Amino acid sequence: MTLQMFLEHLYMVILAVIFAIGIGLPLGILSYLFPGARKAILWVVDVLQTIPSLALLGIIMVFIGAGKITVITGLVLYSLLPIVRNTNLGLTEVDPAIKEAARGMGMSKFYQLIRVELPLAFPVIFTGIRIATVNSIGSAVFAAFVGGGGLGSIIYRGIRIQNIRLIASGTLSLMLMAVVFDLVMGMIEKRLYRRSSAA
Amino acid sequence: MTAFLEVYGKMLVNSILTHLFYVFVSVSIGFCLGLALGILLTRVPKYSQVILPVISLFQTIPGIVFIGTLFLYIGMVPLTVIIALSIYAMFPVLKNTYVGILNVEPQYTEAARGLGMSNSQVLVQVELPLAMPTIIAGLRMSTVYTVSWAVLAAMIGLGGLGDFIYRGISTNNNALIIVGAVPAAVLAVVLGLLIDRLQKKAVPRGLRKGGAVK
User: Fold this and answer.
1) For an interface test with B, which of A45, A51, A167 has the most B Cβ atoms less than 10 Å from its Cβ?
2) How far is A7 from chain B (nearest CA, A)?
3) Which end of chain B is less congested by CB atoms within 10 angstroms, N or C?
4) pLDDT at res. B212
5) Cβ contact A152:A143 at 8 Å
């Protein structure tokens, strides 16, 4: 039973992060290409993350009902901030000399973005994805309240029937998941940074 | 809408006040504890290498677990919520205090020592002011988190805006959810903005504009 909750939790988090990358990456690129829109985009994603989790899930639930989709939508909205901000930051921090060299070689703006800027910004973007993933693992606990299942429901049940072992098993699995993701993605991140500084 | 306000208006005001009460008390306690422990940790960098990872590990425990577990031991009293939220509010402040002080460039502390300042003078007059923007950033995180976790007070029947959200979710009453969720969201955003203001003021005058403040 615990395994099933564990997988359910993982499923919601991974799906949410994938969607968040799909939405956040273009938003980050947009905010880089159009400095005018930068402030507005960053402000919106910042406000989204400030909204209390249960409140956000509640509001989403009003529109699309209870269930996993509600949870995933909420997690996507929460994950946008680190991904959008880091995409923007990574692209901004690419060495201007390299950008100029790319233009000097006759690359179009689009080509320059795809072939030069994005690959160089990727380590920073990946940091954003790692933060989004670890945060989502924590926030997905709230799924229990809106009928999404996951490890949160084990913890919640433990609290309701006053069973400390149930709470502990849910919490430890959760911590394990967060720590493993943090470590593994951190290792990949280090390798990415090393490769980009060697190049 | 007016009929709705007549029924729930008073309760809503009460809930907002309860919510604010939880947030202010816990953030105040958490801030003092975090600041003190953060400063302490910078004095013993050797142990900090061990203590800090443990702290970030603790931070992965969701607030619901803190509240739930304490609820089993202490019971259904506001103290449960306050303790849980204070612990939670402490972590970001602690971490940022530590990082903020460590990131003060040695040239400043050395200059201060050269002027004959004692250790405590260096701390109060040089390190803390320079670290203040980072510490306030920690305070912002604590506050926003606490507003969020205070919603869970309702889970153990202790009021706050979570009450509406809970009741709304369990009775499928969308109006109730909105009445609880929107003020909670507004509260978090407004408090966040206020602290952003505070943070701008906290930057020492000589360092405004330029200077990496995160």
Assistant:
1) A51
2) 18
3) N
4) 44
5) yes
